[in-house]
Amino acid sequence: LTQATVLLTALAIVKEKERGTLEQLIVTPIKTWQIIIGKLAPFTIIGIIDIALALAGVTLVLGIPVHGSIVLLVVLSLLFICTTLGLGLFVSTISGTQQQAMMTTVFFVVLPMNFLSGFIFPIENMPKIIQGISYVLPLRYFFEIVRGIFLRGAGLAELWPQVLALFIFGAGVLTLSSLRFRKKLA
């Protein structure tokens, strides 16, 4: 989910810059926020499909039940998708070429999130400084949410600190990315 939304968003927008089609959009009467929504909408749909496939695979193929609310899991997954789309948009604003966008995404977003979020290695086994760094990774909070809903049947009352952190990070990165995108267009 992370790789698809961050990487595809960054690459698609940078590709538009390279081809010059983004400049063609600038001269149209379309507002900046409409361009951003238009660029992010397809990757939101891809993220939703990823969520559906993952849920179907885990429950139907592997036979692992979801102990919590599937609706809450999907809604909070959409919050995570907004965060990763914002990261992809941010990468596109600082990258000049598709290769640069790919390398930036892989080395500064995907790899740190995979290694430091608790996905591969338990956070409590990491050195204290790395544990501190993990607090700025949205994937850390998303994993805590998924584990809570999936394994323990946790609800919003138990997960509100993770949801709040993910919301703040998502709102912040989307706002920063949109402002940088707007400045790039002007």
Provide structural commentary.
It is a single chain. The model has no long low-confidence stretch (mean pLDDT 91). The protein has helices spanning 2-19, 21-26, 32-61, 70-94, 98-116, 128-133, 138-152, 156-185. It is built from eight helices and no strands. With 186 residues, the protein is an all-alpha fold.
- Overall spatial form: globular
Q: What pattern of helices and strands is seen along the backbone?
A: HHHHHHHH
Helix content: over 70%
Give the class from helix and strand content and strand pairing.
mainly alpha
Query: End-to-end span in angstroms?
Result: 32 Å
The mean pLDDT is: 91
> What percentage of amino acids are in beta strands?
under 5%
Largest sheet: none
Query: Which runs of at least 5 residues are low in confidence (pLDDT < 50)?
Result: none
What is the number of helical segments per DSSP (H or I, 4+ residues)? 8
Radius of gyration over C-alpha positions, nearest whole angstrom: 17 Å
Question: How many DSSP-defined strands?
Answer: 0
